[in-house]
Amino acid sequence: MSNANQPINKAFETKLPYGSELNDLLTQHYVTEANVTQLLQKKGVYYGIKDKKFTVPIVASMLLTPEEFEFLKEKRNTKEDRLKRSSRVHGWSSKKSLSEEIPTNINVRDIIDTRFKGYEIVGNPRFVVQNKNKVTMKFNIERIDNTKGWCNSRRIFNGVIELEVRNGDVEVSIVKKSTSTETEEVCDKVVSYFKNELRKKKCITQDQLSIIFSSFSNEERISFFWDLTGDIPEPFMKFESITDIDVKPDSQKTIPTEIPIEWMANKISKLHVSGEKLHDTFFILIGNEDVTFIYKISIIFCFIFFGSSHLF
């Protein structure tokens, strides 16, 4: 999945752009001001202004070397769409292996109608049996958008779907990896189809319980965050600091005057605080949990391994 999206436009691969075509490429969002300035410096041009509206016309008036064009293509391929991964676990109730139960000969084109989608599925992707309890499907889609410039009108993105029965044949893990909204849609529809097929055979049960934000009351969330700032029973991990907090007062409750966040009442809808050692501030003090919502927090831990330590 390293090359998440590859250009399909043959001209983009074989032709060195110049003039208006180069200008079109340089103005794309994935080519930054620093990238354009770096190209100028490679050519021995040092310009005091980094704004692209000044630097792009200068570069567009020049000819690129193959190496410089590769530099721009690399920015395009790595910054456009990044790998997105999601997974779900179901109970597995079949006595047979996954490869025996799953219909691997289904054509994806029969599941997804892409006639009016703005993209096409490349080839005929199918599930491949890795072993009796693991199957994978790798696929590519071609995005077609003629409203884009010459360098972006046709693109290829890839995706992967993995199904694996594990943990003593009692659960099946379904993993989706996508690199664009289109590959995510293909993943969702294909997974939905095969889940329905497996349910018809009574091979899988409902999703296992997921622990999400709404699983906790506000008091439980704050208590959980507070516990993270104390001693952790793992010898290889040590709490260091809270660096970011997103907090807001509970609009349904009155903040007592003796609580140090009373000044937020009827004035602050939400507040983001960045700093060091925020766990020592009044935002996360026990006693505030009845009247505040903490909905985001960043915590630094020290990971200790064989005598060396790293912050994360």
Tell me, rounded to a whole number, the average pLDDT.
76
What is the tally of helical segments? 8
CATH fold descriptor of the largest domain: Alpha-D-Glucose-1,6-Bisphosphate, Chain A, domain 4
Number of domains: 3
Largest sheet properties: 8 strands, antiparallel
- Helix coverage percent: 25-40%
Gap from first CA to last CA: 25 Å
Task: Estimate the global geometry from the Cα principal axes.
Answer: flat
What does this entry look like structurally?
This protein is an alpha+beta fold and 312 residues long. The protein folds into three domains: 5-79, no CATH class; 84-207, Alpha-D-Glucose-1,6-Bisphosphate, Chain A, domain 4 (2-Layer Sandwich); 214-311, no CATH class. 26% of the residues lie in helices and 29% in strands. It has eight helices and twelve strands. It has helices at residues 10-14, 20-26, 33-42, 52-60, 66-79, 98-101, 181-200, 218-228; strands at residues 5-7, 84-92, 119-122, 128-131, 134-144, 154-166, 171-178, 204-207, 237-249, 271-274, 292-305, 308-311. The strands form two sheets. Strands 1, 2, 3, 4, 5, 6, 7 and 8 form an eight-stranded antiparallel sheet that branches. Strands 10-9-11-12 form a four-stranded antiparallel sheet. A hairpin with a 2-residue loop joins strand 4 (128-131) and strand 5. Helix 2 runs antiparallel to helix 4 and helix 3 (33-42) crosses helix 4. The model is unreliable at 1-8 (pLDDT under 50).
